[in-house]
Amino acid sequence: MAASLQKCPPCDCSYGSRDVYNVTAKPIQKWLSQANTAGKNHGLNPVDFLAIASIETNGDYSAIDPSGTTYGIVQIDKAHLNAYNCLKGTKYTMDDLIGEGKLITTSSGAVRLSFDILGYHLSSALDKTDSLKSAADCP
Predict the structure, then answer these.
(1) How many domains does the chain divide into?
(2) What's 12's DSSP letter?
């Protein structure tokens, strides 16, 4: 029997409760192409991007958290956007993450950017984890 992610009770996290939605649901599957591209570009499973989008916004590319500090489908904050801009030499704004910027004006572009930023941070974290594992294996 194949495993799947289904809606389950909210988790008890320090930053609040979140529902996990089925990653095959229409609001999430709408972004499959962008998830596949991000997965390929960053060497990650595309389902990771869809699962995070499910938890953070249930696939709503235009979401802004109530405090106004995180934007887009995977809720990117200013610090992560600034790090990405520095790395890539780009000048994206928070509004670009929701398709209302000067550089990004479409939903698919906003999701592509959000997934790319997330991919850079996830792959960086995985690289550091792998380095720590290698160091721990040293005699």
Answers:
(1) 1
(2) -
Statement: the pTM of the whole predicted model exceeds 0.85: no
Which of 121, 98, 124, 94 minimizes the C-alpha distance to 109? 98
Per residue of the chain (139 residues), give pLDDT as tens: 344 444 444 444 444 555 556 788 888 999 999 999 999 999 999 999 999 999 999 999 999 999 999 999 999 999 999 999 999 999 999 999 999 999 999 999 999 999 999 999 998 877 655 544 444 455 5
User: Among all chains, which residue has been given the structure tokens 């887009």?
Assistant: 72
The residue range of the domain holding 78 is 26-130
Q: What does the alpha-carbon distance between residue 107 and residue 63 come to, in Å, rounded to a whole number?
A: 11
* 72 located within any domain: yes
